[in-house]
Amino acid sequence: MEMTPERKEIFLRELRRHGIILAAARAASPATDSRTACVSSFYWTRNRDPEFAAEWDTALAEASADVELEIHRRAVEGYEEPVYQKGELVGTITRYSDRLLELRAKGLMPDRYAVERKDVRVQGKIEHDHQHKAVLLELRPEDVILLPEDKRETLLELLEEIAEAKGDEPVPHLLERG
What we know:
By secondary structure, the chain is mostly helical. It contains eight helices and two strands, in the order ααααββαααα. Strand 1 and strand 2 (88-95) form a beta hairpin.
């Protein structure tokens, strides 16, 4: 089935509405019998059409924002649930979703509310025979200045990587780059 501008527009409209790629592809490909074959033509077009790819990403972002807003509404603002007595509607009661509020908190503040942290421990023994002796080197700013500028930059990048690997906080450089 040919990828027409109309098919693209239907696909993007549906994707904006719910964010489900398969359902959007089906809506834009009503004549296709296969449940999944139509999806591949949209991915093929996405990979070859940067404008379509950008519109696709925007449509998914809009669908995600709508879902996030609905999660917030149900968790924080609440939603009205009808109340019946003897089969007759007598009013509504505002309900809130504790579970959605929990999910929202975990998404916004994972450092405080993501309880499902994984702790992986590995036990074992590693032996390594190394012929070189370790040399302790102390670098002072005046020593680093002796290096050519490109080597200084490389050294600073390596020191940053080492600090990051050790989990150290970034330290402002004593030397200005550039």
